[in-house]
Amino acid sequence: MPVPAILFPADPLNPRRPDPHFAWEARLLRESGGEHHLVDHDALLAGQAEEAVRRVPRDSGPLWYRGWMLPSARYRGFGAALTARGGNLLTSPPGYAAAHELPGWYGVFEGATPASAWIPSAGPVAPGPAELAAAAARLGGSGPAIVKDYVKSRKHEWHEACYVPDLADLPAVGRVVARFVELQGEFLAGGVVLRRYEEFERAGGGPESADRGTGDRGSGRTGDAASARSTGDAAGGGPGAGGRAVEARVWWLDGRPVLVGPHPDAPHQSVEPDLTEVRALVRTLGCRFVTTDLASRADGSGWRVVEVGDGQVSDLPRGIDPSGLLTALIAA
Ligand SMILES: Nc1ncnc2c1ncn2[C@@H]1O[C@H](COP(=O)(O)OP(=O)(O)OP(=O)(O)O)[C@@H](O)[C@H]1O
Ligand SMILES: [Mg+2]
Questions:
Q1: Is residue 234 part of a domain?
Q2: Does some domain include residue 69?
Q3: Are 264 and 213 in contact (CB under 8 A)?
Q4: Ion ligand 2 neighbours, Cβ < 5 Å
Q5: Which of 153, 287, 289 is nearest to 221 (CA)?
Q6: Digit-coded pLDDT (tens) for 70-109
């Protein structure tokens, strides 16, 4: 069996080198005896997949990707361009979409994750009042909620574009959703999601440093690599806010947790999630390489899945050693 190589985005300023954000992973991979190739992320986003993969050798066989988020349609083009060169992304395009977008994984995780309702959208247009009322009704019609799209929230604009104090106040729901859609603009992924707000255990000391997630450049949702999120209006500002929710990010490969660490937003947090329930759900989802972000309920009644992600585009917390993860990927 050929050993998988890993594709990283190239540095836009120096296409023969990995993007600085991934240079460290590429170096660790090399030190573990693995091989990487480079792809042009901007060309991928522009829909020029053949151009994007031109530095990937022909007949390269099994491939993982570690890079910026891609919209599911762009990942599909990426997969097809690699297939045409004799490469094979080990996460198929349908598998990517299933882990990357909330409607793809929600059915499997329902009950273990906050109740959610979504409204598909064809572009950056806010849903109308009737659609919002119907979605709010599907969540019980009252109580606090959060707003996001199929992939990301605007948690750093918490009161303005993320947190809804009461679903029964439909004009207020409409305002938060409209602002969310306006800020996401052309990068709105899939549609608008409403999720019932749940109280999670918090780190007492106020918002932690907010590192930019892997997705933000690639998804283009914040436009460019320089548009780091501000920490001023950070997530966790709901009822009884006192710092952000403590989240663990668990990296799963073929149903096994190969790396357990903090969420990249709070890289120094120590976390010990109970994986009993989520392990079975990850296996049911059936995607080979995924992450789950887990938070502990404030009342101590157990761990909840805040979100699922494709492992290829999930950000690593600073300071964690991913050597074991990389070794597992090239042994998979
Ligand atoms: N249903 C919920 N109840 C309470 N808090 C929530 C809920 N959903 C999200 N949050 C809070 O908002 C934050 C952002 O939500 P979420 O993780 O879904 O969005 P995101 O933008 O994809 O974040 P990232 O990709 O950086 O993890 C979470 O880390 C959590 O603190
Ligand atoms: Mg998250």
A1: no
A2: yes
A3: yes
A4: 293, 307
A5: 153
A6: 999 999 999 999 999 999 999 999 999 999 999 999 999 9
